Amino acid sequence: MNKLSFVITAFLCCWAVAGAKTYQLASPNGKLKVSIENDAKSTAFAITHGETPVLNRSALGMSIEGGKTLGAEKCKSSKTSKGEKCNALTLNYGKYAVEFRAYDQGVAYRFVTRFADSLTIANEQVEFCLPADCMAYEAPANSHHKTNDLRDQAYCSFENTYQYAKLSNLNRQHLGLSPMLIELAGGKKLLIGDYNVRSYPGMFLLPSKGNVVKGFFPPYPKHEYQGDHNNLQMIVDDWENYIAKTAGAHTFPWKMMLVAEYDADLLTTEVPRLLADAPVVNADWVKPGKVAWDWWNNWNLKGVDFATGVNNRTYQYYIDFAAKHGIEYVILDEGWAVNKKADLMQVVPEIDLPMLVKYAADRGVDIVLWAGYKAFERDMENVCRHYSEMGVKGFKIDFMDRCDQKMMAFLEKAAATCAKYRLFCDFHGAPVPNGMTYTYPNVLNFEAVAGQEQVKWSKLKKFDQVRHETLLPFIRQVVGPMDYTQGAMRNATKKSYYPCNSQPMSQGTRCRQLALYLIFDSPFNMLCDTPTNYEAEPECLDFISKVPVVWDERRVLSAKIGEYVIEACRKGDTWYVGGISNWEARTVNLDLSFIEGKQMELFVDGINAHRHAEDYIKSVGTVPATITVHLAPGGGFALKTK
Question: Which residues are known catalytic residues?
Answer without folding.
Answer: 398, 453
